[in-house]
Amino acid sequence: MQVDAVKVRRLYLEVATQIEQQIQSGQIGPGERLPSERDLASRFEVSRPTIREAMIALEIAGLVEIKTGSGIYVLAQTETLAPHSLDDVPGPFEVLEARLLIEPQAASLAAARISKAQLNSIEQAVQIMGDANSSEHQKEQADELFHVTIAQATDNSALASTIKWLWELRNQSALSSRFHQRVRELGVQPYVEEHRKIFNALKLRDPERARTAMHHHISNAIEQDMSVLDLHDNEDD
């Protein structure tokens, strides 16, 4: 007896695949603008972040062009990459949501356990992020070093491994890489002052202050990413 393995796919891939099928079948033609983000979320019965992840997947596949503030337009089809061929990994908003649940508690734990050497590493990372002469790549590396070092400072290998894995997803997934590239193209940079507040709380060895500062930082990142990637949402569509 031969069977196919049962596999639960990511919601954004399900959405992207259905839209891809309509494009390939000619139901949606080149140059047409897709329905608004709100309309798509309602039709597919998913969240708006899921729709944004699906649109990034379609963009990577070469099926659509995203024009921030205008909408998503279908491209003339030449040689494209099927959305379902992308890595079946959590989307960028899923990663951010997981980080919001985990990293504030990690910061709280780290505040009581962090070493002087780790504090120095975190302080240097903040300085690099705030230096106007630092390249984009250097700032990105410093941002990751900041968060991963805090995770290591918990002295909890399970927490440290989990947070490191979330950052690997952010950096290695084609979807997340393109997502964060778009965010940077739209002018969003690591929030230096927010990182500095987290560092100061760790330096004071204040668990609650560290937890609150980290929670505010990641919450703000989610809100800012949602804002800068806001898609055209005309109620008359």
UniProtKB/TrEMBL annotation:
Query: Superkingdom of this entry's organism?
Result: Bacteria
Record carries keyword Nucleotidyltransferase: no
Annotated organism of origin: Alteromonas alba
What PROSITE patterns has UniProt attached to this entry? Answer: HTH_GNTR (PS50949)
Q: Which residues form the HTH gntR-type domain?
A: 9-77
**Annotated keywords:** DNA-binding, Transcription, Transcription regulation
Which GO MF term does the entry hold, naming one? DNA-binding transcription factor activity
Q: What is this protein called?
A: GntR family transcriptional regulator
The cross-references to Pfam families, in alphabetical order and at most eight, read: FCD, GntR
InterPro entries for this protein: GntR_C, TF_FadR/GntR_C, Tscrpt_reg_HTH_GntR, WH-like_DNA-bd_sf, WH_DNA-bd_sf
